[in-house]
């Protein structure tokens, strides 16, 4: 059984939009995404790291609110925020590991 990545991704997006969580995104042509420069990669990486930092700050604030007895934040919200930040951080660590591995492979190539 062979699964096409693009069709699976499109199906997941349509299911998420039906659930009302996100709006469907307009598909960009492949030529526009293929011409990615290092400046754009840096911006994307910086944005992703800022997103992880924001998730961690939000989780910390919610956990602190629950610990202080704030009734506007439920325990479930705090646990979900904490798990989201944990998953985002683990994904960031895995991306970093892959980048370091790729760098080491490139540096060990003979010239």
From TrEMBL:
It is found in: Bacterial flagellum basal body. Its main location: other. Coiled coil: none annotated. The keyword RNA-binding does not apply. It comes from the Bacteria. InterPro entries: FliE. One of its GO terms (cellular component) is bacterial-type flagellum basal body. The keyword Protein biosynthesis does not apply. One of its GO terms (molecular function) is structural molecule activity. Keywords: Bacterial flagellum, Cell projection, Cilium, Flagellum. GO terms for biological process: bacterial-type flagellum-dependent cell motility. Belongs to the FliE family. This is Flagellar hook-basal body complex protein FliE.
């Amino acid at each position: 059984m062979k699964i096409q990545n693009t069709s699976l991704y499109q199906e997941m997006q349509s299911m998420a939009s039906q659930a009302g969580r996100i709006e469907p995104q307009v598909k960009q042509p492949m030529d526009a995404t293929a011409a990615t420069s290092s400046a754009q990669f840096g911006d994307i990486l910086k944005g992703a790291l800022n997103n992880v930092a924001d998730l961690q700050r939000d989780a910390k604030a919610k956990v602190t609110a629950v610990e202080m007895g704030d009734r506007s934040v439920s325990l479930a919200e705090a646990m979900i925020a904490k798990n989201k930040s944990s998953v985002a951080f683990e994904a960031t660590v895995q991306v970093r590991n892959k980048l370091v591995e790729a760098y080491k492979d490139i540096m060990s190539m003979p010239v």
